[in-house]
User: Fold these one by one.
Assistant:
Number 1:
Amino acid sequence: MKISTKGRYGLTIMIELGKRFGEGPTSLKTIAQMHDLSEHYLEQLIAPLRNAGLVKSIRGAYGGYILADNPSKITAGDIIRVLEGPISPVEGIEDEEPVKRSLWIKIRDAVKDVLDNTTIQDLVNYKDEGETDSYMFYI
């Protein structure tokens, strides 16, 4: 399964909205500038997220978008399904011979498990395990 830029940028939008949850609306222009992305492309992605009830739009001079629910209740799977469609490693699993069908189902279920058990809050709180607090020593 390959996740396209739709899914990747959709997650970017949702993580940024998650970081600002409870602080008011955030414009797509702000998100686009922060990540050096096309604002026009983000506008195309936000519509299905809004239609799915994952984000709400706020009109006005200080408008933008907010998460429709707490970031701990929205999963990566919710976002990927809206933007990418069903989660499946191959098309036509039911037409495969049993041994391969079993493999594809295991892969699909593993991917679903990760996506459905990773919330926006988890992504907001993520710290790179390779990151360490570095100290500067002067001699």
Number 2:
Amino acid sequence: MPTSSSPERPKVALFVTCLVNVMRPGIAEATRDLLTEAGCDVDVPLAQTCCGQPAFNSGDEASGRAMARHQIETLEGYTYVVAPSGSCAGTIRHDYVHTFHDDAPWRERAENLAARTHEITSFLVDVMDFQPARTRFPATATYHDTCSGLRELGVHDQPRRLLESAEGLELVPLPGSNVCCGFGGTFCVKYPAIANAVVEEKAAAVESTGASILLGGDLGCLMNMAGKLQRRGSNVRVFHTVEAVAGRLAGPAIGEGR
């Protein structure tokens, strides 16, 4: 259930996402810390489950609808819903509305949730006009624009603005930053040869920048690129954007041991 909140502090449900919950919960912790610093009362609804994206992408509309109904019910009562993932936020904002196109009551509830749901960097910049506390981490980084965040939600300038707060972190352009990394959720399972060729090109582009750190906004994409970089013997370390903004670059990167 939503937590109590003062009139000045919005109630925010942190939608953790499956991959973050299982593979890198520190991203959720960094997201929570930034939301709190931005002036939000943050709750993590324990009843949340998968957003249903794999089902929708695989054509299993019935399962996707069932998960959408569950999430709509779980996330009602919050001022905002925020996810450290453009793909999951995009699913809630677009797929939920589409799947209930023939069900007026549920479509209305889906539209209400869609209007309150945001990707984390977009929420911090566009909604909260947040300027994070300055952290210091001398390094050169490059940034990959994930497909869902960029194309579904218009996330581009927001993470770059937030990263300006990291003193000493020099952001260099990534050639083809808006080109898919080859992950695509179930795409990389169905078409592994194509996915591998795409991420091979992405890894080469990352290495060409000379950056020591790669940043992005979706853990699936980051895991895909981190795995390829490591298999190439690269020293580039991979982190989620919120980890950099929250000053968490000193710990293990994605794919590294603890």
